[in-house]
Design brief:
- By secondary structure, the chain is mainly α.
- 32% of the residues are buried.
- It is elongated and about 105 Å long.
- Strands 1-2 form a two-stranded antiparallel ribbon.
- The two termini are 55 Å apart.
């Protein structure tokens, strides 16, 4: 008997619904064809018994386009219109966007989520399936069944843009219960998110604006905002326009910190950021952004865009203005202008005549159209020293100054000693044959000796303070050695006693533990109505709490607060509360 998955011809015609994801269309196809097993639909549509069931980044899209005969369009069109990939590409290089598209068309996405920065973003790589209750009712009445909208699945979208009500989460994919299953939204299988239960008007407006930014990001091309330096300058220009920076460019924290506090209050209702609603954390992230360093997740950019810009179009205009301001010179004109660093052919002839004694140096300078000082400098490069007619400098004084300069004397100090101007000292340097090169070499050796001595004086503290602290003790010496004598600096660093260093992971986990515990307390106090807290409801509000449950020894404060909340659930909740954990 031929199984359903082995049908050779594709005969079911199913039009895609507005804003429908590829996963939703396949789920409707699975239900319409009554395939029974989910693997049968996978084989029919993707040529593999488990491919395609990912609702965010499905693989084998190229095979799907071929097997369905282009019903939803070509593979690039499907990826652009029916998956979440376009959301992550505007802040990434265009080359990575092409590679990501190839991964979705291929047999598996591999390490795509890592390369997009999801795994290292601190926000998680999961995309919970979300739906709006009003949309579900309208879809059932209009189409006969509900479906997953792509605009609802985007990170940062927690209010329905049509009905302005909080979205609900389906735990089916989130808990890996039906990882390879085809499912459609239903009111009975979608649960509300606790942190969205009692939104203030300001929080609702901020969430709605953030959702509009996430949706608008889908229309941007890959690599459109892939320059973190320009992003930082764009944000700095906006702060400057609002008077939040000094004339030197430093941030006026007295004006910015109230805005960070307001952002903290808004981020409490955002499940992705509820465990990171800390003003100190936001301050460090703002400094990172202003310094031109990239952020790992597009949502981290969007919360700052939502704070300082009206919409994404406003940010695009400001971003483009930064690029236009940086292009101050017409490169086509600049490249045609020759850079003169010496005499041209005609001037070279007059210079040679003066060196041979045919004409005087002043006459050569006049005919060449340059000053006498310039001609004298060119002559010194040919080891020709012009005759002198001193007015202030006697021959003895001049000879003594030459001796001092050969010993590497400072020009300002020498001018003060002999009561002449610095210009006069510079003229002697440039007109005495070989003196300027010798003086620079001696000065360089003096600076190197001084920098080495200063660094050696504090090098013994390396085992106690570390390299960063040593740089602060002698910043000038370290900077000079790093630029001009790096080999010696590296050799010196290798000879120092090794110290046990770390990446402060324990402190970072402790800080994250404190923030997670604070987020749990705030969530418990957020809802004034008595509520039966379950692990599922807590995970929907704070998805990153899964890490604390898996590694409780690393999150003691979080586990303590979690135990307190669940003990209240046991004490005050109904005895048949589902998933209510009873702690002994």
């Amino acid at each position: 008997m031929i199984r359903q998955a082995e049908f050779k011809e594709f005969s079911v015609w199913l039009d895609p619904l507005p804003d429908e994801t590829l996963f939703s269309w396949c789920s409707r196809y699975h239900r319409l064809t009554v395939n029974g097993l989910d693997r049968n639909t996978c084989l029919q549509l993707f040529g593999h018994h488990r491919a395609g069931t990912a609702h965010d980044f499905p693989a084998r899209v190229g095979t799907f386009a071929v097997l369905t005969k282009g019903m939803l369009g070509t593979a690039p069109e499907i990826i652009q219109q029916r998956t979440l990939l376009p959301f992550y590409l505007p802040f990434r290089p265009e080359r990575l966007g092409r590679q990501a598209e190839q991964a979705l068309c291929g047999h598996g996405i591999g390490h795509l989520k890592y390369r997009l920065g999801l795994l290292t973003s601190g926000l998680g790589a999961a995309h919970p399936l979300k739906a709006c209750s009003s949309c579900i009712s309208e879809d059932v009445n209009l189409y006969g069944w509900a479906y997953w909208r792509r605009s609802h699945q985007l990170p940062g979208v927690w209010l329905c843009p049509k009905h302005y009500e909080p979205l609900k989460v389906s735990p089916v994919k989130q808990d890996q219960v039906a990882r390879f299953s085809w499912v459609l939204p239903a009111e009975v299988c979608c649960a509300p998110v606790s942190c969205l239960a009692a939104l203030s008007s300001d929080q609702a407006a901020w969430l709605f604006k953030l959702g509009l930014l996430s949706t608008a990001l889908l229309d941007c091309v890959p690599g459109q905002f892939d320059d973190p330096v320009r992003i930082g300058q764009t944000l700095r220009d906006r702060l400057k326009a609002r008077g939040m920076t000094y004339s030197t460019g430093r941030v006026r924290w007295s004006m910015v910190e109230p805005i960070l506090m307001r952002m903290t209050m808004d981020m409490v209702c955002l499940p992705e950021f509820s465990h990171q609603s800390d003003p100190e954390l936001l301050r460090s992230q703002l400094l990172r952004l202003l310094s031109g360093r990239a952020l790992a997740h597009p949502l981290r950019y969007l919360i700052w865009i939502a704070t300082w810009f009206d919409d994404l179009a406003d940010f695009q205009r400001a971003y483009a203005a930064v690029h236009a301001a940086n292009v101050l010179v017409d490169r086509s004109v600049a490249e045609t202008m020759p850079i003169m660093r010496g005499p041209n052919n005609l001037q070279q002839q007059f210079l040679l005549q003066a060196c041979r004694g045919v004409i005087s140096l002043s006459a050569a300078a006049k005919q060449a159209g340059v000053s006498y000082a310039t001609m004298a400098v060119w002559a010194s490069h040919l080891a020709i020293e012009p005759s002198r007619r001193p007015k202030k400098l006697s021959p003895a004084m001049r000879e003594q100054m030459v001796i001092e300069l050969r010993n590497g004397a400072d020009k300002e100090a020498l001018a003060l000693t002999f009561n002449v101007s610095v210009v006069t000292v510079t003229r002697i340097l440039r007109t005495v044959a070989g003196l300027q090169e010798h003086w620079h070499a001696v000065r360089h050796e003096q600076r190197r000796s001084a920098a080495r001595h200063a660094w050696e004086q504090i090098a013994g503290l390396y085992a106690y303070m570390g390299l960063k602290a040593l740089r602060r003790l002698q910043p000038a010496a370290y900077a000079w050695l790093y630029r001009n004598d790096r080999d010696w600096l590296n050799t010196c660093a290798r000879s120092l006693p090794k110290r046990v260093t770390g990446n402060h992971a324990a402190q970072r986990i402790q800080n994250a533990d404190e923030r997670m515990a604070a987020a749990l307390k705030q969530l418990a106090n957020h809802n004034t109505n008595p509520q039966v807290w379950t692990l599922d409801s807590l995970k929907r509000s704070i998805p990153r709490i899964e890490k604390a449950i898996n590694f409780p020894e690393r999150w003691p404060q979080t586990i303590k607060v979690l135990a307190f909340i669940l003990v209240l659930c046991k004490r005050w909740g109904p005895p048949d509360a589902p998933n209510c954990v009873a702690l002994n």
